[in-house]
Structure to design on (369 residues):
């Protein structure tokens, strides 16, 4: 079938809106009509060429929501008409990783997904007979896409697509980092570096978890209003701190934070985040994705004296199990999403979403098909 898609033909070039051919679902696969998709920093990272695993031409996008229109042979958990959120971290419930409660990194389709292909090693997308690669197993910058059954979470049928698409990455990553990865306790002190689309969700996760002190750190003072609305109790702009940032933050938190989170992707910030975690027990969680070749460093004594460094992908969430629950939290008003969606546009306007992100003017732009 012909579908409309924003195709990344080359790194560093704007997406091209064009007609693409999509093959129907094969065994274990599902055809989904994408109704809305967020544009995340990670799409920009890949489009810019900074992603060492970036493959072109490809259909990017990994923060979607839509409706099942067809299922391939052997699909049992989904049917036509179901509302779904695509999962770039699938959940097969059978692999060694899914069976280990310590991780959410299902490996069932990891190799082919990383190569921009469906699990049988082929692509469903082409332009004039030339192969176009999938991206993160999701490719939500197309109005129809094909995914493995294990990479789809079935959600509440009344959930608004243009809001809950954000649960496909940013919301789950931020809230999950707090609840699943850090397991923050009531009364904790926390510091969040980077108040963008991920950091704001870390902040609302901390509020949900009952943290007492939620310090936000960002170079852009334009982020303060939104972060305060979501639960930030103190703001620090590193540009306005005289002297070193670490002792300033340790002093502010009276000894260091119980939990710190990097949501910038900057390795210098990651070091600061580790070092302002409390001696003896502070945990620092890396969420940000650093550029190719970047490395983190600190003095080992920081770890010897009880701080720990950890990381999280998709907020440690098991998508088919956890994403429907987060959608319910949104429907019940336990979490907020709407104010973070600062811009919406049609597919034709998708490059503007990247421009807004570069200028630091958006939290989330959502493309509505
Ligand atoms: P964003 O661009 O919306 O936000 C980043 C924020 O960091 C901005 O507000 C910016 O002003 C601030 N910032 C930049 N440099 C800073 C510095 N030196 N000190 C303090 N603040 C600084 O990006 P986002 O969408 O929130 O994504 C954040 C990171 O999370 C990215 O690296 C992204 O790739 C990554 N990410 C990771 C996962 C995961 O599963 N681990 C999932 C999604 C996104
Ligand atoms: O299992 O080896 C693996 C890779 C899992 C990929 C998880 C990606 C999470 C970080 C990328 C940002 C997503 C928007
Ligand atoms: Zn698995
Ligand atoms: Zn994302």
């Amino acid at each position: 079938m012909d579908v409309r898609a924003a195709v990344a033909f080359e790194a560093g070039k704007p997406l091209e809106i064009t007609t693409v051919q999509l093959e129907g679902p094969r065994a274990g696969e599902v055809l989904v009509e994408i109704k809305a998709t967020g544009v995340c920093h990670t799409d920009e990272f890949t489009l810019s060429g900074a992603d060492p695993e970036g493959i072109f031409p490809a259909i990017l996008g990994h923060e979607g929501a839509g409706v099942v229109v067809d299922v391939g042979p052997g699909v049992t958990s989904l049917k036509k008409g179901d509302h779904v959120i695509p999962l770039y971290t699938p959940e097969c419930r059978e692999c060694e990783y899914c069976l280990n409660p310590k991780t959410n990194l299902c490996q069932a389709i990891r190799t082919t997904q990383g190569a921009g292909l469906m699990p049988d090693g082929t692509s469903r997308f082409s332009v004039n007979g030339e192969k176009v690669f999938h991206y993160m197993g999701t490719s939500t910058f197309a109005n129809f896409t094909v995914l493995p059954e294990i990479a789809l979470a079935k959600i509440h049928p009344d959930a608004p697509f243009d809001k809950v698409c954000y649960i496909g990455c940013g919301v789950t990553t931020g809230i999950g980092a707090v609840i699943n990865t850090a397991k923050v306790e009531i009364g904790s002190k926390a510091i969040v570096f980077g108040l963008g689309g991920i950091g704001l969700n870390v902040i609302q996760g901390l509020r949900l978890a009952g943290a007492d002190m939620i310090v936000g750190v960002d170079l852009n003072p334009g982020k303060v209003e939104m972060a305060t609305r979501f639960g930030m109790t103190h703001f620090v702009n590193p540009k306005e701190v005289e002297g070193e940032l670490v002792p300033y933050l340790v002093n502010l938190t009276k000894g260091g934070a119980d939990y710190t989170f990097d949501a910038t992707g900057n390795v210098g910030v990651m070091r600061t985040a580790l070092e302002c975690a409390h001696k003896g027990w502070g945990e620092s969680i890396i969420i940000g994705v650093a550029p190719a070749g970047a490395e983190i460093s600190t003095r080992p004594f920081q770890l010897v004296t009880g701080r720990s460094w950890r990381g999280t992908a998709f907020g440690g969430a098991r998508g088919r199990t956890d994403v429907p629950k987060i959608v319910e939290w949104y429907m019940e008003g336990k979490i907020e999403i709407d104010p973070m969606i600062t811009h919406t546009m049609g597919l034709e306007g998708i490059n503007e979403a990247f421009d807004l992100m570069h200028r630091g003017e958006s939290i989330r732009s959502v493309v509505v098909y």
The pocket of zinc ion (ligand 3) is lined by residues 92, 94-95, 97-98, 106, 108 (CB under 6 Å). The mean pLDDT is 97.
